[in-house]
Fold each of these.
Amino acid sequence: MMKPKRLAAILIFLVFIMAAVFPRVLYRLGTFLAVAENAGTVDAVVISHSAEKAFACYRRGRCKKVVIATQKTTRPDWQALKSLNSEDTIRQQARRAGIRDEDLYLLHLAADNDVQKARTLKTFFAKKKIRSALFLFSFYKTRRHRFFFDRVFSGGAITAYVQPYKDDYHAAFDHWWQKTTYANYFLGEYLTMAWYVFNKLLWTSAV
Amino acid sequence: MVKTLGKYIGPPALLYLAAVAGQGFWLPPFAEFLMRRDPAPAADLIVVSTGSYARFRYAVGLAQKNPAAKLLILGDRRIVTPLPGKSPLDLAADEALALGLPERQLILKHSTSTLVDARAAKNIMEERAFATAAVVSDSYNMRRLAMIFDHVFRESAVRLHYLPAEFKADPPHPRQWWKYPREFRYVVMEWIKLPLDFFRIHFLLGE
């Protein structure tokens, strides 16, 4: 039987270690979600809504085409976002940003999950002879997409690069676990990857 | 050799096969436990947070059917959507007005968690001497939401009713939740938060 003093000392030591290590571990769990890969020159840049970084890439000649892949869903969503993501709005913004109509593709992804989305993109790329693509996402979604692209595009003819569509995201990692919204976002990203693994393990038809 | 291997590998392998074969039996209760639906009352206050659009839209529908009720919308103003650069609370306020809800029916409050939502709702109920509230949220959020609200209102005479927002176009799938990434995220996240919040409200908060 351990003496109470000794037990208390061990407990205090463990609490101290946890307090010292936990913020670092949590911080690393946050930063792990952000992937920013060097793309060089690619056949296309893919975004889910109009993004200045994609248009700049096109204007500099590093992205030959711009693909705007929007999610087609029956799920209700904010009207303000729906109108912003409408095909007409995106096309107008792309034109204003100097994208020629022949270099702009609008793709509607009628998919329930990331695997289906990536497969649809793979088919689309094959049809349009796109062999390399830069994908832009919100910073915390980049790891998840890297994860799914590694699985769906592996062994194929497509080279995919992933980057955040804005570069000013680093401050978001400071104590993210104390901000409910970011905590939900970040945990959600890990769980989406876990969803894939779980369904693979259970041999379901979802993946 | 084979006998020894069978001794160690056999039971886990059998357990795994049983888990795969019986997934339709042992997984649904995890989602079903989280769900709850009370009869819809003629409430004085309808409470909703901007955690999802579906619940907001459902709450607006309730408020439109019951013009005497106030609609309390809670959301985190610190985090904004990439486009149009507004917080979900501001999007909700704009859309509620655009849907024809009169401004006098709306109450907007900044909030960072379900616990803060409950406390804000309680303050308003007490200030205005309201007797009944309808608390709206997503199907899988109901168990934890009710636990927190019931705790905050435990010494109050206010009657709380919990209403899940469900849309025909996007219904939950509690019998197959693990196959849908969004539902997988939601259910697992709730099972992480449920014990944490239970511990927090019963042992950490000395109200």
Note: Chain A has a mean pLDDT of 90.
Amino acid sequence: MHDPDAPLVERAQRGDQCAFEQLVERHQHRLFTLAARTLGSPHDAADAVQEAFLRAWLALPRFRRGSLFSTWLYRICLNAAHDQRLKRRAEPSELVDRADPRDTFSERELSGELQRALDALDETYRVAVVLYDLLGCSYAEIAEMTGVPEGTVKSRIFRGRTELAQLLGTTAGRPESKT
Amino acid sequence: MMDGAHPNEFDLLAYVEEDLPEPRKAAVAEHVAGCQACADSVRQLETARQVLRSAPLLEMPAGTRAAVLAGLPARAPKRRLRWRPAVVAPALAAAAVLAVVTGVVLTVDWNDRGQEEAAEFTPSPAAPATSEADAGAEAGGAEEEKRALSSALRPVHGPPREVALYLRSQGFDARVVDSTVRVRNADPEAVMRALADRPDGPVRVEVVP
């Protein structure tokens, strides 16, 4: 299996922070999209991604070939996002999060109709459709990231998509809060 | 395959994804053409796919990137010598004995050691320089305003990420922004009490409203 990240990963495994910085550059937006779309908040996503990169850096010496670096990194991000969701549930008062003027595009996207529909999905369905349709991961990669068989991944994509379409259908007539 | 029965969800998904080989593809197509329920499923699968695939990637904010890079502790797998008192005292005693016996003066440069240990927690010099520049360029007035409204506390020993994680474990909303630990909506005195045991160091801590 050819991994385009392999040369940088090898250097980063030896402690080269510059190499890791390039890996951050490569994957930051996709990782942020994954966290933001599954959590529904740019602030929670920022925390989750920050945590994910930290965990990846610390765990990198234990990363073994056999899976793509990106697959491994996404799995770490999903775990960090899951932890962030639990933390948010434990501290609901933090839900009132002021908008960061730098994040207006993300803010707008995450307050739109699609995100409301995604938020209404079961978490496992949401993760499956975001990984497959939004980020273009394969069934096999998603199976590895989420620790379930490919058949389960396909089933989740099927249900996630059909429910999403129904949700979008029922909210289509409502006024958008987009500015 | 079907003989009038509905195709299962795997077949319908594969049909929409054009992964279904013939002759199953033709059989599913024929069924869908005559079955409203399956035609609805196919339409929903296609609609959601189209909406999701046209959704843009969301850019990670430059401030988050800066915080990621500033929060990386150096990995020092080679020499992780710790100068714990239990180790240091006998070592110093042995060095003193050796010095007396051999007449050679051995010096332990505590300053150098301290810097080395600090360096272990300091991000690579290139990283924060560029990331802070990025963050500064994007942040503009809002960031300055935040700084103005914040109250800076006693700088403590790092790394920033560790300080922030500790404060979070104590119930504070702390995060690393541009190498600074930023605590939101907190009583500055309570933050300092939480950090009372932490020695002075280079990590800035500030409380913002």
Note: Chain A touches chain B through 53 residues (CB under 8 Å).
